[in-house]
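User: Reviewer 2 asked us to show a designed sequence for the structure in our supplementary figure. I'm pasting the structure tokens here. Could you produce the per-position amino acids so we can include them in the response letter?
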């Protein structure tokens, strides 16, 4: 599930409440501490809370008690055509340099 897809699980209007932590997505829907997707006015479901958990008053194992429903993925980004061309040019130049050394 991507970050964009995760946003749909914000716990509001009867939707499931999911949070991501360290690449895993947890279902916190049944927790009374996540009523309507809100965690004590500090955090909203549908988000990656990895950084926020570092300063939370509880340890990560509290979140890990919830069921994992998916993994957080990043959408594939198309490779830059310029970057690929760079490596081709670099390889050709390296081969030419080797040939030049062999000739000299």
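Assistant: Here is a per-position design you can include in the supplement:
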């Amino acid at each position: 599930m991507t970050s964009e897809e995760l946003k749909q699980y914000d716990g509001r209007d009867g939707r499931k409440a999911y949070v991501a932590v360290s690449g895993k997505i947890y279902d916190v829907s049944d927790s009374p501490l996540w009523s309507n997707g809100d965690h004590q006015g500090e955090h909203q479901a549908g988000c990656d809370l990895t950084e926020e958990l570092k300063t939370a008053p509880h340890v990560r194992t509290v979140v890990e008690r919830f069921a994992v429903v998916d993994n957080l993925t990043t959408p594939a980004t198309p490779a830059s055509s310029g970057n690929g061309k760079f490596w081709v040019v670099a390889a050709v130049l390296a081969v030419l340099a080797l040939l030049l050394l062999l000739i000299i």
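For the response letter, you might also mention the following. Residues 81-103 form the longest helix (23 residues). Residues 87 and 93 are 10 Å apart (CA to CA).
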